[in-house]
Amino acid sequence: MANVISNVALVPGIYVMKIEGNFRGRMGQFYMLRSGRNYPLLPRPISIYDIGEDYISFLYRVVGEGTSLFSQLQPGQEIQLEGPFGNGFPQVEGSLALVGGGMGTAPLLLAAKHYPHAHVYLGFVQQAFGVEAFEAVAASVQVKVGGSIIEQVDPAHYVNMFSCGPTPMLQALAMKTEGTSSRLYISTERHMACGIGACLGCTMRTREGNRRVCKEGPVFPVEEVEFDDLHGV
Ligand SMILES: Cc1cc2nc3c(=O)[nH]c(=O)nc-3n(C[C@H](O)[C@H](O)[C@H](O)COP(=O)(O)OP(=O)(O)OC[C@H]3O[C@@H](n4cnc5c(N)ncnc54)[C@H](O)[C@@H]3O)c2cc1C
Ligand code: FES
Questions:
Q1: Exposed, middle or buried: residue 119 (CB in 10 Å: 0-12, 13-18, 19+)?
Q2: How many angstroms separate the alpha carbon of residue 201 from the centre of ligand 2?
Q3: By three-state DSSP, how is residue 224 classified?
Q4: Structural domains of the chain sorted by starting position, each given as residue range(s) with its CATH number in brackets
Q5: Does residue 194 have a known ligand-binding role?
Q6: Per-residue pLDDT tens for 12-67?
Q7: Which BP terms from GO are recorded (predicted)?
Q8: What HEC string does 174-196 produce?
Q9: Would the CB of 191 count as within 6 Å of ligand 1?
């Protein structure tokens, strides 16, 4: 169990929760979070948003019971968390674009901190959130509210791209990347029960066969992704 330092709504329904402690974790990895000791039964996977020597933080959207319980936590209250899990984004060299849509921006902040030369593209349906955190660390940040942020991304300019967001956005980026030498890595999502590769509940079909999103993922090179079996953010 760890103590909540703060749990603040950036916009209605979207919160940043900061938790006290010395945690491990790399860009694109996630933790399994549970607000109470035994309830709900299953913890929920949430990407590492930010991490420092004495804290870890998570950016989350309230969608159902588990995240609704998270949003009720007050500073000083306890939360259960285990991790880090998953492979995370790879170490890369050369120019890099970080392309996020909505909640898909969450796993990209650590990548922006890790690669200060990265160009960041953030797309939102109705309301932008968390943009200032990227502006504080990235070489450039482009934001689009409504429409498609992919129009502003030219994959030919980048040796590497990391992306997370809704499936149509990821697919549009993948199509635009085809025929370029840019390497695209996508962070995927699945319902998870164990988070450690034991239950097979998060299995996803890929071009390399079935893969567990919690263990072999959540990050996959785009060549492996079967878009018709992809659950975007
Ligand atoms: C690796 C990984 C990293 C994630 N990182 C974040 C993050 O940083 N921030 C964040 O807000 N969310 C993140 N998610 C999604 C988050 O885990 C779910 O929103 C959360 O589990 C919902 O729990 P709940 O109890 O609130 O909703 P539930 O009551 O469990 O579900 C509410 C609705 O959301 C759907 N749903 C729940 N989980 C998922 C899922 N994983 N994929 C698709 N649909 C789902 C359900 O089918 C249902 O319709 C991540 C998921 C994965 C797999
Ligand atoms: S969540 Fe159990 S194997 Fe991935």
A1: buried
A2: 5
A3: helix
A4: 2-85 (2.40.30.10), 96-229 (3.40.50.80)
A5: yes
A6: 999 999 999 999 999 999 999 998 766 666 799 999 999 999 999 999 999 999 99
A7: pyrimidine nucleotide biosynthetic process
A8: HHHHCCCCCEEEEECECCCCCCC
A9: yes
